[in-house]
Amino acid sequence: MLTTEPLEQMRGLPPVEDGQQPHCGDSLMRIAPDGTWFHQGSPIGRKQLVRLFSTLLRKDASGFVLVTPAEKLSIAVEDAPFIAVLLEVQGAGPGQRLCFTTNVGDVVTAGAENPLHFKIVDGVPLPYVEVRRGLTAKAARPVYYQLADLAQMQDGRLGVWSGGIFFAFGP
Predict the structure, then answer these.
(1) Which CATH superfamily is domain 82-164 in?
(2) Is 90 exceeded by the pLDDT of residue 61?
């Protein structure tokens, strides 16, 4: 059963933004554009392990890091750290709510706290939603098509509504 309760409230995410852990090097991990997590070049196959690592992820001035109580390690993120794999639409028009579920189990509703934005790549608007702590999820192709189906014109701009905010597909 899906819940719309944020991951922080369900499990209590570790306070990765607290403390001044020393930077201890590279984790030898990377997150590919498709959301696959790798360690030393091999994919991490255990979903629970990826979920655990995702709760330790933070973006700071130096880039993406994994933070524990004792240290922080660099991690390469090739695009967005998460993928929005499901979209649940509640309501319609300006009162509509777009609830995204990520590949690591976060559930967020696009709105003021979790804005939806679009990067234009080769003339195509690619949707991203802020998930937590400045970390974003790129929409998977099926979610992208759902958003395209929901698109409407507002003041001469194409976009979607969520949480009372109109998110335009481009400038």
Answers:
(1) duf1285 protein (2.30.270.10)
(2) no
